[in-house]
Amino acid sequence: MTTTIDEQDANNNDLVSKVKVKHAELEQMKERFAKLLLGEDMSGGGKGVSSALALTNAITNLAASVFGEQHKLAPMPEDRKRRWRREVGWLLSVTDYIVEFVASQQAGKDGSNMEIMMTQQRGDLRMNIAALKKLDAMLIGCLDNFRDQNQFWYVSKDADESEKGVQRNDKWWLPTVKVPAEGLSEESRKWMQYQKDCVNQVLKASMAINAQILGEMEIPENYIDTLPKNGRETLGDSIYKSITVDFFDPSQFLMTMDLSSELNVLDLKNKIEASIVIWKRKMNQKDSKSSWSSGISMEKREQFEERAETILILLKQRFPGLPQSSLEICKIESNKDVGHAVLESYSRVLESLASTVMNRIEDVLYADNVAQDPSLLAKKMSTSARVRVATSEDNDETPGHSPGQTPTESMTLSDFMGWSVDQEQEESNTKNGDSSPKQVEENENEKYQSYSARILARTKNSYMEKLGGIGLRSPTTRH
């Protein structure tokens, strides 16, 4: 009898705890929606932002708090996983009430059919929300797959140098990766590559959806008012001449640009996007006598725009963690479409998480390569040393660098962030170190042409055309 009473007390305590948790969640949900309704201005002073921007900020801040500490290939803690699913579900529920009218057939009592108008969720939301939820589940499922792995492990950044593992990049705050002395097993290596391919598909799909939504957002007038009247003034003479030459190689164009810092890459992206807006505006106003008219033919301007679009795609592929451009920020801040706000922010945070997981997988694969070929680590250290020496010698002569710049700042953004960009180029330069100038030039031209051919082959097909089975539209434009 005593045992039964104890069990009843335990059950009652569990029930009370569950009720308290549900009540706390309900109060939290009320607070979140109240903040959205007031446009993040809880004082009620009428200084809040639009509902669309409030939703964008809510999803972005939620993702930052949930995924901000995902430094390892390991399952997310269950409490964080539940919080993400619960709170992102609250924010996505807003789209259930964004509807459109569709024709439908209704049978009358007398057996006759008549056409009536019914409401259903807006088409783009119905399609893309389901796809993004699937991508979300795939990413979290990928992290869950690393639950029982024992082929690699992490060592704290505070450990002794002798105990630390391999660091692929200069992110000293991340834990280092260690693998067995002989490297990963063949089965584990193939499994890791399969996980990387899956995450890569998620990354491409989320990038495509985000680009599609940003492309559908209207360009604000306040952004257009800040633009010059021609593309040459926006790009500058040097970049303009490089884009408008008869033979244009996008990869060689990027090789000539100063991409040594994130600020420089973002500045180039801003210039390219501004020039695209100007050229499109001139084409749309070709018959008017506005100040946007120009003597350049329509065919030429369309060709320049296609080249600029290709450059934007390459920048997005090479630097997936690049901050938003001025045009993107202006679009998001001026956007009043709640549906677009949800799709843009949800796809953006999934793109960011997929990029993070991809980098963590590449860290493990790099540690495996070093275990099989320790000379890779020595080559990396010697390369870093050469960069530091070159920086100290050329610091006062290199354009765009201040005299007090640190060695790290002179490295390319790819080196600093750990992105594996154009590793073939380093190997080619090493092989050609003792070659004649003519042979080096021939090898460089061959390298540029082959690399350009691969890039152009990739850009001919949209991201979504490579993702059979997801069933989403291809983005008509990147921006």
- Which class best fits the helix and strand makeup? mainly alpha
Strand order of the biggest β-sheet = 1-2
Using DSSP, what is the number of strands?
A: 4
**Helical residue percent band:** 55-70%
Topology pattern, helix = H, strand = E: HHHEEHEEHHHHHHHHHHHHHH
Q: How would you sum up the global shape?
A: globular
Q: Characterize the main sheet.
A: 2 strands, antiparallel
Q: What's the number of helices? A: 18
Estimated share of beta-strand residues: 5-15%
Compute the CA-based radius of gyration. Answer: 27 Å
Unreliable sequence segments: 287-293, 383-438, 444-479
How would you characterize the overall build of this protein?
61% of the residues lie in helices and 5% in strands. A hairpin with a 5-residue loop joins β1 and β2 (113-121). It contains 18 helices and four strands. The protein is globular and about 90 Å long. Mean pLDDT is 76; it is low at 287-293, 383-438 and 444-479. By secondary structure, it is mainly alpha-helical.
What does the secondary structure layout of this molecule look like, with pairings?
Elements: H1 2-37, H2 51-67, H3 78-92, E1 99-107, E2 113-121, H4 123-144, E3 153-155, E4 176-178, H5 186-216, H6 221-224, H7 231-235, H8 237-243, H9 250-256, H10 262-284, H11 298-318, H12 326-334, H13 338-372, H14 375-394, H15 407-410, H16 413-417, H17 423-431, H18 437-460
Antiparallel strand pairs: 1-2, 3-4
Helix pairs in contact: 2-3, 2-13, 4-5, 4-13, 5-13, 10-11
